[in-house]
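Sharing a chain and its predicted structure for anyone who wants a worked example. Both blocks are below, sequence first, tokens second.
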Amino acid sequence: MLTIASQLEVLGRFGKALADPTRARILLALLVAPSHPAQLARELGLTRTNVSNHLACLRGCGLVVAQPEGRRTRYEITHGRLAHALRDLAEVDLVVESAWPCPDRAADHRSGSIRALAAPVRRARSGASAAQGRGLSSPVSRP
């Protein structure tokens, strides 16, 4: 059983991973299929060094694992439950009122929405696996 302290640590690690738009894009790409750093760099328009640094952070947070394949390393989401949670989060439509601004509005404008981040990955890896997890979303409205 998780204690409150361990639950807070899990949420903190999850939050740290999702707080950076590049890490969020990498996670969304890995939802579609496991991948190698070079392939992720090509698909996301990033340098291999940048991708590798973000993958190291995601590994440190416990969200991805590295699987050696000869001289290459394949990365994937650590657990099916985590992948399910990420799919659910990516499909949520947030409805917010302008009277309730996000505390870091500058970050919102830099990063865009999670759906905007996911769009290039979905286009790059179109196919049956990209449609997994659909149908689980429902709009969420916050007062």
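Comments welcome. The radius of gyration is 16 Å.
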